[in-house]
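TICKET #2291
ISSUE: user wants both folds in one file
ATTACHMENT 1:
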Amino acid sequence: MDGHPIDLSTWPRTDQFRFFRSFERPHFAVTARLDVTGLLLRAKPAGISPYRACLYAIGAGFDRVDALRVRFKGEDVIAFDRVDLSMTVPREDGTFGYAYLTWMPDFPAFDAAAKDQLAQAAAGRTLSPNSTRLDMAYLSCLPWLDYTALTNAMPDADDPIPRIGWGKFSKTAEGFDMAMTVEVHHAIADGRHVAEFFAAVQDTLAAVSR
């Protein structure tokens, strides 16, 4: 992926970056509820997959929020123009594999590519993780649970890859909603960036559901 190095001598966030790099547990997770009424009552009857629409909306969130595309390795900090999406894909035997998707602003094109890649991952037999790339975001859906909080397994305190989780669609008095969680390294992002991400995802879900 295309990216450019960040000069720590001029980056406004350098102090925060170095401060949170000293933490034993530098990741934080925020869970919010998103409205999926239109997704279930309009988009799904029109033939749109709610799951793939969520993948697309999450990709749009990363596209909109620059801070969530920043990665680091040691003291090298890189701002990527785009990050790919890696999501867990369940298989019939109860295990799971990983699929890898490139986000595209054109939803029909993204949807077609996602459908194909998800089917290939579901039919595979190996885990096939790609843990060497920094220009990634990790996604995982928990459709069995309407949860209130979520954390992820982290290999170490310097893992810079954001994790996104989302749960079961739940009935509300007004329609339907779901929990979504963003877990991110505090050295690269703050609560404001996470709030911007949630807003972008919600806006995109609404756009897909019109």
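ATTACHMENT 2:
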Amino acid sequence: MLYFRMILVMAVSLYISRIVLRELGVSDYGIYSLVGGFIALFGFLNAAMSSATQRYLTFDLGKKDYARLQKTFSAALTIHMGIALIVLLFAETLGLWYVNNKMVFPPERTYAVNVVYQFSIAASLLGIILVPYNALIIAREKMNVFAYISIVEVVLKLAIVFMLVFFASDKLIAYAILTFVVSFIIRMTYQAYCRKQFKESKYKFEWDKAYYKELISYSGWNLFGQSANVLANQGTSVLFNLFHGVTINAAISIANQVNTAVYGFVSNFQQAFNPQITKTYAAEEYASHKRMVLTASKFSLIIMSLMSAPILLFPNMFLTLWLGDNLPEYVTQFVQIVLLYSLIDALSGPFWTSAYAIGRVKKYNIGISTINFLTLPLIYLLLKIGVKPYMAFLTRLFISMSIQAYRYYFVNGFLRFKFKEFIPYIWRIAALFTINIALSLLSGFMQVETLKSFLIALIILEVMLITVVVFIIMTKPERLLIKSYIKK
């Protein structure tokens, strides 16, 4: 169900981006992505608490403690309401000042920027309050429901894109308003389903100081880690805007759109795995937990590689087929770099889930955040001395590799992977990642002129990659398992 949802969402999202770019134009498209990204800066509290909510709900289910499960849900919802108020306060004070005094955009678009900003805040607040409901559905492993609602969401987004064609006035404002309406509908749908199906989703305010302190303490260190991550992601866009204006933001936004679509194949795979990773640790089934972490990590890289390889090798052809010839400068390089550091993120997902299941979040987040906080000063220095934007953007890749090395070190400190189970994993993922880097370096020499030649090259590339994966990256038991599934 998750893969069916993902394929549909990816196809529609790519089409939506094409139409929105055409209808809004490069400048307005850059404005919308920049304002939305800036709002995400104020969502660091929500990002921190989201992980804590997911972890505690899943952990309670792993322990089969249903009384505590209801208590966790109500406490999480109370905290998220508080987070929404804090985000609203910051967004309407500090954020509003920055948008009108520091953000770089055409002066005649000031009114439109402010309208987009207000509706982006409203949509963000709805998303914050939605988190406990979303987390409960995933913890309960009702992936089909999650898939159905996501499909409804993307269909509604497609509908509003078609509606843009009929707006003769300011299409940027219309798009912001309609996007908020979709967010409201989805928010109410999640709440209605949970209240009908899960009795623990009935909100009940209960003040337990010790328990609130435990949740907030856990999320507090997570907040430290998430704030570094949000600053690295969204702060990068703000820095590039300061040095190169909104056109470069359009290029970064397109790269992120490609990455979101491709990474969907991995995130859906991991989303099905993550509750089990947490539950096996909660049940103290450590051997099963370790095996699941390594297997999910390796197969995440395999899936990401199969999806990103054609784009890494033929980025210009892919983007031209998708968006036409009106491409922002440096967009092909940004796409390649984003996909390369997403390969690292694909590896890290199961280890990240394991680290939070372990629960020792202080040491983990101090290490991760210290590395992540280096992103912005390094990018700023590179832009300041006049380095080309895509060279400065490479900083993200090196930071991501450093973070993953620390993540391996942290998880191994608790799980104690044996040499014979860890070394085969390491050399296999290193070989596959090297192939992806080689494809990106070869892209300048591999040009295809027609759709037919592109499709032929794509098929040859995928066949070669699948052959390498099956006979080199996979183990013999994994090959036999897949063979048995095919026979069925």
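RESOLUTION: both attachments delivered.
EXTRA DETAIL ON ATTACHMENT 2: DSSP finds 18 helices and no strands in the chain.
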